[in-house]
Design a protein that fits this description.
By secondary structure, this protein is of the alpha+beta class. It is built from 20 helices and 15 strands. Strands 1, 2, 3, 4, 5 and 8 form a 6-stranded mixed beta sheet that branches. Strands 9-12-13-14 form a 4-stranded antiparallel beta sheet, with no helix packed on it. It has a 3-stranded mixed beta sheet with strand order 10-11-15, with no helix packed on it. Helix 11 crosses helix 12, helix 16 packs across helix 18 and helix 17 crosses helix 18.
Length: 509
């Protein structure tokens, strides 16, 4: 604007156009244009010079712009339709330009069409430049195009998902092929990313896929519990991008497009028989990508990461994250709860019998929760229809029964007398399975509280003399019925009498 004022001042002083152009360092045509506008306005130099720079710019600039031609207007009317159609799969600008040119044969060529479309797009839908802080955000997403592996035995081609992650400041990129977009594969890929970069950023920015966000919202999205637990383990935060707003994670969207050229293309002719083989090939070309100089710069993503972002990341925890799954079940009357996937039973405190609880289980442990309180924790066991018991969970009577064993009964008998221990030992020897003798031993040893140890010792000693070992024998000895019918102790081993005048029940009496 100062140059325009200088041109007008020299013209008002009677200088020639050639002299003004030389003094103002402008072409004669430029000087003529400004002077023609000044003359057409009808204002004096003092009136024009009194205008501020904005008013002077409007006077000589925008106010003199020509209105758009009909050719331009017809193209501008097409742009909203073009913008909408570009969101469809397979539709590109060249296809839409061809449709426009068929309708308007005197229209603009393809290059001008794209130039004016970009101007219109930036005007009606502007974008915001994002300045990324070192160690601040890690953007994650799945690529739209998939890779594949080939079954070695059948030759079947199996498609796999491709996970992409990129750090905001250094743009260091991580790529991994996974079996699916399910929670297990997604969390594992995120964890592998953190170990690849050797630290933890302040936040992870995922898309609104179900593995990360259970329910999307513009204000407070509901995170997947397992993914939130993963973030707590690593001490980071989850910041889901807004639904249908790819610009919130434009960095990773751009990284995906680059991966199509830098990774997909080099691997397109290779045949891989497992995810491990495919990921090894991906890692090689990924390192080349991270070590390649950025366009127009004299440093790479890896160099930038080492210099500005590595130290800004939080340290990794000592232990890796164990993915936990949920299972809801009701505590049975015996104080156990069944983990359905394993069909295995775990004990919980007996006061929760009949309650519905939540089980969180990983590859190594099973935790039981009731109203957000952990009530039990067990080492995971995968034996079908087996029971894992914590003694303190059982009621006092159940704890006593749970302690039943051959050694327990023999130890109890030894505390009374050696003859009692020998009698109990002989009972176990005559049973195919130890548990068959538990109740009999319990009844015999229980006589010590009823009749005293001395009488029980004498009864066991007499039972050893007869050589018959069961609860019935000791009971009959203690009730002094053995003197009359000593032979009745063999009743279990003798056949029923065949005498017609003696009934079987009288024989036993």
């Amino acid at each position: 604007m100062s140059k325009i004022r200088k041109i007008l001042r020299m013209y008002s002083n009677g200088r020639s156009i050639m002299s003004i152009a030389a003094q103002a360092d402008a072409s004669r045509n430029t000087v003529k244009k400004y002077l023609a506008s000044f003359k057409d306005s009808g204002f004096t130099f003092e009136e024009v010079d009194a205008l501020n720079d904005k008013e002077l710019e409007d006077f000589f600039g925008k106010s003199r712009e020509m209105p758009p031609t009909s050719r331009m207007q017809s193209m501008l009317r097409c742009f909203p339709h073009v913008d909408k159609e570009l969101k469809r799969t397979g539709v590109n600008r060249h296809i839409l330009w061809a449709e426009y040119y068929r309708e308007f044969p005197d229209g603009y060529q393809y290059s001008q069409f794209c130039f004016y479309y970009n101007q219109w797009k930036n005007r009606v839908n502007p974008t915001m430049h994002m300045d990324h802080k070192a160690g601040d955000k890690l953007y994650v997403d799945f690529a739209g195009q998939k890779l594949s592996i080939t079954d070695k035995d059948t030759g079947e081609i199996i498609t796999v998902e491709v996970f992409v992650a990129i750090l905001g400041a250094s743009q260091l990129t991580y790529v991994e092929a996974v079996g699916s977009q399910q929670k297990e594969d997604f969390i594992t890929a995120c964890e592998n990313t953190l170990h690849y970069i050797g630290g933890v950023p302040d936040a992870i920015v995922p898309d609104n896929l179900k593995a990360a966000v259970t329910k999307s919202s513009r204000y407070e999205p509901t995170l997947n519990e397992s993914f939130a637990d993963f973030a707590d383990h690593y001490g980071t935060t989850i910041l889901p991008a807004r639904a249908f707003r790819p610009r919130d994670k434009a960095l990773v969207e751009g990284a995906v497009k680059i991966m199509y050229t830098r990774i997909y293309a080099p691997l397109r002719k290779g045949i891989y028989h497992s995810l491990k083989e495919l990921n090894e090939a991906i890692r090689q070309v990924l390192e080349e990508h991270n070590n390649r100089f950025l366009q127009g710069r004299n440093y790479s993503r890896r160099q930038q990461f080492d210099e500005i972002e590595r130290e800004a990341l939080m340290p990794l925890p000592v232990l890796r994250y164990e993915l936990k799954k949920q299972f809801h079940a009701t505590v049975m009357k015996n104080g156990y709860v069944c983990l359905g996937p394993d069909k295995h039973y775990y004990s919980v405190p007996y006061r929760f019998i009949g309650r519905k609880i939540k089980l969180l289980y990983s590859s190594s442990s099973v935790e039981a929760f009731y109203h957000y309180e952990r009530i039990a924790m067990h080492k995971r066991t995968r034996g079908l229809y087996l029971y894992t018991t914590e003694k303190d969970h059982l009621a006092s009577t159940h704890q006593f029964v749970a302690d039943w064993s051959q050694d327990k009964f023999l130890g109890w008998a030894s505390s009374i007398h050696e003859d009692v221990r020998l009698y109990i030992h002989n009972i176990f020897d005559r049973k195919q399975h130890p548990e068959q003798a538990y109740k009999s031993c319990l009844g015999i040893l229980g006589f010590s509280r009823k009749v005293g140890n001395e009488r029980l010792i004498l009864a066991c000693r007499r039972g050893l003399h007869y050589g018959v070992y069961n609860y019935k024998t000791i009971h009959m000895i203690l009730e002094k019925k053995m003197d009359q019918y000593e032979e009745s102790i063999f009743a279990d081993e003798l056949p029923m009498p065949s005498h017609d005048n003696i009934r079987g029940e009288d024989y036993y009496k």
